[in-house]
Design a protein that fits this description.
Layout: H1 2-52, E1 56-61, E2 67-70, E3 86-88, E4 93-96, H2 104-111, E5 121-122, E6 130-132, E7 138-144, E8 147-151, E9 159-165, E10 171-176, E11 182-187, E12 192-194
Parallel strand pairs: 5-9
Antiparallel strand pairs: 1-2, 1-6, 2-3, 4-9, 6-7, 7-8, 9-10, 10-11, 11-12
């Protein structure tokens, strides 16, 4: 009987250590998955813009359900329709406005050229979707006679989108450089590092 009690005690101690670590890994994988899915979606938008010789926008919808999609149908962000590529964002992972993200100066210094004064656009905001031109470069919409155009020749454009896990409070970001490079980042508590 004593041996059985000792074995049960050992199992409970091991379980007490393993369960929190397992839960932490699950939350980290959901956050990492959201960043990876969004990064892939933005790459799809960029590739399709070049292939189809068109401008394509990518929208992040806070939900519920939380989703992001490439607007191939051209409905201006009114919502996902077939055949737009779509990803689902886990409910515990929340898109966060850039103004509320930690240490954005550090992140900007890492993915933009030194001394750059470029204002990075928040790709998760409703009015600033991530847009790629037929050349595969990010661009900004401008009002023009007869409608709206996307201008990448008028100056460089860059985007960032931030995610936070509401349970673990960890952060992840996806950036699009002026050259169109899509990169994932994680926040280490003091600075951002590439994933």
């Amino acid at each position: 009987m004593l041996e059985l009690v000792i074995v049960i005690a050992i199992v409970l101690v091991v379980a007490g250590i393993a369960v929190p670590n397992t839960l932490s890994l699950i939350h980290a994988s959901r956050l990492r998955g959201a960043g990876s899915d969004l990064s892939s979606l933005l790459q799809t938008a960029r590739i399709r813009a070049v292939q189809d010789d068109r401008y394509y926008s990518s929208y992040v919808i806070a939900g519920p359900p939380q989703e992001a999609y490439v607007d191939l149908s051209g409905n201006g962000g009114a919502g996902w329709v077939t055949p737009d590529p779509l990803i689902a964002i886990p409910s515990e992972v929340t898109p966060v406005a850039a103004a509320n993200a930690p240490n954005t100066v550090n992140l900007q210094g890492q993915f933009l050229p030194a001394g750059s004064t470029l204002t990075v656009k928040d790709g998760s905001a409703a009015g600033t979707p991530v847009i790629f031109s037929p050349r595969g470069l990010p661009c900004t919409t401008l009002a023009a006679t007869g409608g709206t155009v996307c201008d990448s020749a008028g100056g460089a454009t860059a985007f960032w989108i931030f995610f936070q896990d509401t349970i673990s409070t960890n952060w992840e970001a996806v950036t699009v450089s002026p050259a169109g490079r899509v990169q994932k980042w994680q926040y280490t508590g003091t600075a951002w590092s590439k994933i």
